[in-house]
Each structure stands twice: as structure tokens, then as C-alpha cells.
Specification:
The protein is an alpha+beta fold. The chain has 14 helices and nine strands.
């Protein structure tokens, strides 16, 4: 899920990853800035340098001049997400590449990373769509199939988890909990792009909006590990989890997916790791953070591998660095499980601060070059 805040212990280490530059858009537009929209975010305003742009690749050049950590989104009229960049710290700048078709959109800044945000209209006029290597069309199709497979394979695991909850079997529910989340964590940017599903199934207690009910996986996690009991309310919430994730399963095939959204989604997954898993905040009751961690990395790597043939031609040095850093992070994660084919990881409360710092450094070392992948495939 989207992290609400940066933990003090890892904020400095995470900053390097979260302030990395995504890069430029199409080569022909880089010099004159015609494809760049400046976004100035403050605690009470969201100013954009353009209200209209033609279809194709664009780049948001974001500066947070406020005192709060913020997020910036390009949204469809129904609030589906075109692209986003989270955890933009006060006084920092970030850039993100996206691809848009003709239509009406909104650019939203979310100071404090909560609420509907402060919004500005963006009109995208007709014109030449972003030129695309045919291999990228194949990459999008393959990733769409991957996302659907992850959703399809998640539901039976969720039903196993829910059946244990509804039977009042505490130990069986604990055992089924982490496996039920793997497919979701691998493809979370797709789920988050719909806007309304993630808050129902993956919200943490500190991420609740005013008046929002605490539901989903983490509400049940709290009952199993902290409260150590399953009551009527938990059994009802378990049923709702199946309903909400079935909705996700049915909508995955309709998600808007582009090569740049795949690349940005890979970076988002690393940000999820940096701001939730490494800090131990995501699975604070069960301490199964390393399962989520590995799934996030797998999802990011899947996007990268599908985009890699084009990225290789456009930026060989970037691909060399990404191969190196993915291998290093995966090797480090393997140290926390006896069987490299299983998801039986060490409980995160057994991971020392020194080890957490090592994991954080490895994530940051990958996140920085990964932030440049979208620009590499948009060239």
C-alpha cells in the first residue's frame, strides 16, 4: 500500500531513492521543454506551468516548496491513475515521464499524502500519439497477462486465508496470511491505479482518512497477531476481502497500461519497499515484511525484464547497472530464507538495525537507476 510517512530511522537512506530523477522525454522535445509541465506543490496550492498539451509523452518537473511530504498524480476524470510519484519531501525536486492520449485529465498534489488533493485541469489535445517500438506493445501485452495471472492466482489463496478466519482457526489463518498477499504485492501499481480498491484491502491503521473504516488484510492481521482473537466482525471483514479482491481480479484486464506506466510502476514498487517494508511498518503485527519485500522486487523485475530489450538499445549503461543491482538485492534477500524457492522468510522482528540498513542501502542502489527506466523506453 502507499506509505503514509517516512520512518525516522531510514528517512536519510530512503531520500536518495525517492529524490532520483526519472529523466527526459522524447529527444526532440528535451531542448525546448515543450513536453515538460512544471508542477509547484505547496501545503495549500498546486500550480502547473501548462493547462494544455498535445498527446504523447510528457514529463512532470515537480518541486515541493511546502513543509509536508507530498504526492503528485496525473488522473483520469474517474480518478484512475495515469502516473504518480509519492513521497516527495519538502524542498526536493523530482521528474516523472508519462504517456497520455487526447482527453481531459487532472494533475493533483496531495500535501501530507492524504485526501483528494489540490487539483488542476489538464487538457490533452489530439496529435501524434507517442511513437512506440512494436516490442513495447508486446511488453505491455505480456505485462497485462502477468497482472491478470497474479490476480487469478491470488483469489484461491485469499479464499484459503478467509476460510481459516471464518472457521476461527487462528493458526491456520496466520499460516495463510502472507501467501495470500504475494500476487497483490507483485502488481500493486496496477491495483492502485483504480483508486478505490487499495484503501479497502491494503490500508494500514495510520493510513486511514477521516471517517474511513479499517478493513482488509491489515485489519485482519491485527486481529490475528495483536488481538489474538477472531470475532464476528473479523469473520465479516474476511468475507468483504474476498468481494473486494474479486472486484480487483475482474478489473485488472481493463487497466490502462503503457510502457512508461510499467517503468514507473517498477519504481513505485521499490518506493513501497523503501517506505514500508524496510521500515517494518507494512506488516507491523505479523512481521512478514520480507515476503512482501520479495514480491515487490519480483514485480519490479518483471516490468524491467519485459522492457529491457528496448532499454538495452537506448541506454546500455543503465541496463548493465540495473542487472547488477537486481542481482545484488535478490542475493541479499536470499540470505533471509533457507530455501530459495520458498517464501518462508525470517520474521522481520529478528532483523537487526544493521541488517535493515544493509537492506535499505541495497534498495536505494536499485531505485536510483530504476527511476530512469521510463525515460529510457520513451526515447
Amino acid at each position: 500500500m502507499r506509505a503514509v510517512r517516512l520512518a525516522v530511522v531510514t528517512a536519510a537512506a530512503t531520500a536518495a531513492a525517492l529524490t532520483a530523477v526519472t529523466g527526459c522525454t522524447e529527444k526532440s522535445d528535451a531542448a525546448d521543454g515543450d513536453r515538460v509541465i512544471g508542477v509547484t506543490a505547496t501545503d495549500d496550492a498546486c500550480e502547473t506551468s501548462k493547462k494544455e498539451i498535445s498527446a504523447g509523452h510528457l514529463e512532470l518537473a515537480i518541486e515541493n516548496k511546502g513543509s509536508k511530504v507530498t504526492e503528485v498524480y496525473i488522473l483520469f476524470p474517474d480518478d484512475r491513475v495515469v502516473t504518480e510519484r509519492e513521497n516527495i519531501g519538502p524542498g526536493t525536486k523530482q521528474r516523472v515521464t508519462a504517456e497520455v492520449k487526447a482527453g481531459d485529465y487532472e494533475i493533483a498534489c496531495k500535501p501530507g499524502m492524504k485526501g483528494d488533493g489540490i487539483r488542476q485541469a489538464l487538457k490533452v489535445t489530439g496529435g501524434s500519439a507517442a511513437k512506440r517500438d512494436p516490442r513495447l506493445d508486446k511488453a505491455v501485452a505480456a505485462y497485462r497477462a502477468y497482472a491478470q495471472t497474479q490476480a487469478d492466482e491470488t483469489l484461491p489463496k485469499v479464499k484459503t486465508f478467509v476460510a481459516a478466519v471464518q472457521a476461527g482457526d487462528l493458526e491456520a489463518a496466520k499460516k495463510a496470511y502472507a501467501p495470500s498477499r504475494i500476487g497483490w504485492e507483485r502488481t500493486e501499481p496496477v491495483a492502485e491505479s483504480f483508486g478505490d480498491i487499495d484503501p479497502k484491502v491494503d490500508v494500514r491503521a495510520d493510513g486511514l482518512e477521516a471517517g474511513q473504516e479499517f478493513t482488509g488484510w491489515h485489519r485482519l492481521e491485527k486481529a490475528l497477531w495483536q488481538d489474538k482473537k477472531i470475532g464476528a466482525q473479523e469473520k465479516a471483514l474476511a468475507g468483504r476481502l474476498v468481494t473486494d479482491l474479486t472486484d480487483w481480479q475482474n478489473r485488472v484486464g481493463k487497466a490502462e497500461i503503457t510502457p512508461t506506466s510499467m517503468a514507473n510502476g517498477a519504481k513505485e514498487l521499490l518506493d513501497e519497499v523503501a517506505t514500508g517494508k524496510v521500515t517494518g511498518e507494512e506488516e507491523r503485527y505479523s512481521h512478514t515484511d520480507l515476503v512482501d519485500f520479495k514480491a515487490n522486487v519480483e514485480g519490479a523485475q518483471k516490468s524491467y525484464e519485459l522492457l529491457k530489450p528496448v532499454a538495452q538499445e537506448n541506454d546500455t549503461a543503465l541496463v548493465t547497472e540495473l542487472d547488477k543491482q537486481f542481482a545484488a538485492l535478490n542475493a541479499l534477500l536470499d540470505e533471509y530464507r533457507a530455501d530459495k524457492t520458498s517464501y518462508d522468510f525470517v520474521s522481520y522482528d529478528k532483523v537487526t538495525e544493521v541488517q535493515q540498513k544493509e537492506l535499505s542501502d541495497a534498495v536505494n542502489a536499485l531505485a536510483e537507476p530504476l527511476s530512469k527506466l521510463a525515460a529510457a523506453v520513451a526515447k
